[in-house]
Structures are given as C-alpha cells and as structure tokens.
Write a structure and sequence with these properties.
3 helices; two-stranded antiparallel sheet; alpha+beta
Length: about 100
C-alpha cells in the first residue's frame, strides 16, 4: 500500500540525514497517515479512508467530507475519493431537484 493521502495527495518526500561531521545520507520523510472513518452527510453513510493528519484538519476546517470533496479538484484526489465525489455530486443534484 502506497503511503499517499487519499484526499490531499500528500506523499513521501526525500531528504538527507546530516551527521555532526556534515555527512549526508538519503532518507525519506513519510506523511502521518491515519485510517479514518468519515461520515458523508449527503449519502448518509460512513467511508473509510487513509488520510494524513493535515488532510483531516483541512476537512474539519471546510465543514465536513462533502464540502471538501466538492471544493477539491478531481486530479488531486485518489480513485476512491473521485468515485465518492461523483456519488456526493449526484446526491446533491437529486436533493436540489
């Protein structure tokens, strides 16, 4: 399983370990991913996603999973999140009609 946030697309970064003698060796910085169950208000169901803590705070700030999905570009989302976004859009259209 890749270490990528399903909502923000945040992945691993590469850098250096720097010793006291200024020797540099490669290392990776992994995002803080959590397995989270988020609730979709428009669908009325819960969804399990693998989200970074930064992404989780962003979802809370925007006002929930549905608002986050509708405001985010589809290119930034994972395949599962894109499918969920389409479901939410359809549910919002049927509720408006």
């Amino acid at each position: 399983m890749s270490r990528i946030c399903e909502l923000t697309g945040k992945g691993r970064q590469v850098g250096h370990n720097v010793s006291h003698a200024n020797n540099k060796t490669k290392r990776t910085f992994l995002p803080n991913l959590q397995n989270v169950t988020l609730i979709s208000d428009s669908l009325g169901e819960s969804v399990k996603l693998r989200v970074s803590t930064h992404g989780l705070r962003s979802v809370e700030h925007v006002g929930g999973l549905d608002n986050w999905l509708l405001k985010t570009r589809s290119e930034d989302l994972s395949l599962r999140a894109r499918r969920l976004k389409r479901k939410v859009q359809k549910a919002a259209e049927t509720a408006a009609a």
